[in-house]
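Structure (tokenized):
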């Protein structure tokens, strides 16, 4: 949270890009590869977001619903966890920016 507060990000997409939670598309004129997370930015923050998203998938109803929906649509568990990590960044950005009020019963 202090990272989000100390830098001047305009929206949650910029925070996600800084942390490395955006897809990196691998393709050329002849072939199309699989897209993966870009993994640019601090790896320690991504590691902490990963562990937090594993917990949120079990206990946060919003993130759990998104995770279950993605699994039902045929996404892998790691893809769904990547989406949960990004959702967690969006929640943190909203809380730090003062736009959202999150209380203990939300988690």
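Design, position by position:
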């Amino acid at each position: 949270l202090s990272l989000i507060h100390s830098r001047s990000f305009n929206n949650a997409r910029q925070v996600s890009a800084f942390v490395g939670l955006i897809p990196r598309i691998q393709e050329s004129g002849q072939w199309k590869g699989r897209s993966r997370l870009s993994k640019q930015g601090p790896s320690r923050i991504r590691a902490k977001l990963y562990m937090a998203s594993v917990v949120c998938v079990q206990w946060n109803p919003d993130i759990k619903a998104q995770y279950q929906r993605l699994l039902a649509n045929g996404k892998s568990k790691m893809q769904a966890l990547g989406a949960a990590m990004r959702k967690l960044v969006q929640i943190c950005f909203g809380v730090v920016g003062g736009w959202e009020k999150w209380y203990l019963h939300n988690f």
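Reviewer-requested clarification: Residues 11 and 93 are 8 Å apart (CA to CA). The chain has a mean pLDDT of 83.
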